[in-house]
Predict the structure.
Amino acid sequence: MQEEIAMLKAYIVDDEKPAIMKLERQLSPLDSVEVIGSSQSPTQAIKEINKLQPDLVFLDINMAELSGFDIIPFLPVKTQIVFTTASEKHAIQAFEKSAVDYLLKPFDTDRLLKAIVKVEHAISASGDIDNRKEIAPEYNQDILVSKQGDRIFFVKLADIYYFKSMQGTVYGHTVNKAYPFSTSLEKLEAELNPQNFIRFHRSFLINVHHIKEVQRWFGGKLLVIMSDSNLTEISSSRDGAKVLKRQFNL
Amino acid sequence: MLFNSLNTISSLIYTDPQKADMVLHKLAELLRYSLDVSSNKFVTLSVEIDVVKKYLEIEQARFEDKLDVSFAIEQDCLNLLLPPLILQSLVENAIKHNSFSNGLLIDVRVYNKGHRVSIEVADNGVGFGAKLNSEQNFKGTGLKNIESQIKLLHRAVIKFSNYSDVLGHGAHVMISFDI
């Protein structure tokens, strides 16, 4: 039975009018998103977003009146946030603020579509659990398929040290290679066995069988060193550290 | 600034192609200038002001004319030599840190008193706030660069203040040096 997918309601906050117009133009041909409002003033945006309750907010970070980070505490909790900014330097902070994605201006429509797919996954992952069970069998073979142009690579799930989300694409890192997968970390997290794969950072899902060492870090965080050839270091978020500590009684 | 301007161009290409073209060319000139002058220790004030005006046209396209900048430059100061991009950074700072919703005014003055020249940039924005008294904290990379650049000028001093008078309030920066 085909289920009707509801259109995402989106709101745009940006202090530059041309930036709002560009995003509206990029979104207007899409069937999956409807722009229900926009504002150049962060304070006005807070009021309108609480009234209109959009599913998704495209949020500029560097605004003179109030930064995008400053207004997040005033937005409804269930609102999905996609940051739009010209500067790379806020990326880590953005994901710590639970942003679904981070779009670097100027971004093309393909990149925007990836962000929208991520938002849809994030919304469905937060939805009911029965849905998750239906998709799960895809991953039961323990083999993941990575398509790169005309070549298709088969990657054993057990050989993946960690998944990393970068620029809207998820990469599965083996001991010394990385394979792109058309999925999202949210989807993988929901589908993979949480005994094996732990999400303890916005952009990483790690395979606990390939952890080499864990070091205590400041603020209750942990630094995890993987056993891949680069000895990749990944710092946990505070919540992520709790998951890891609970699982291994650290 | 660069990537925001590219984003503006990408938007204007559809809504206002002529303006998109204008912004693109101003941006090209600004980039060429900043690449060219990076090897120069000094440029003339008149060249620097031309660049600031190009920069402002880009910002005006981004923020739709809610920006008003006035220049009061004494004629005999136009050939003065200055480290490049100082004036541009001061104006950019005023724009970056202030909201445009009520319109932003920026006032640029350069004048010569005896043998000492002053460059003043004032705006009607939020000012430096209380941070001004905590010395280092309010200075970003831009201001720190300016501070190191002006060491090339003779007996140069830079002062930051918040002003408040009958006309309003905002931030005020003044650089003065001997000639």
Observations:
- Residues 138-248 of chain A form a domain with the OB fold (Dihydrolipoamide Acetyltransferase, E2P) fold (CATH 2.40.50.1020).
- The longest helix of chain A spans residues 109-125.
- Chain A touches chain B at residues 15-19, 21-22, 25, 40-41, 62-65, 86-87, 104-106 (CB under 8 Å).
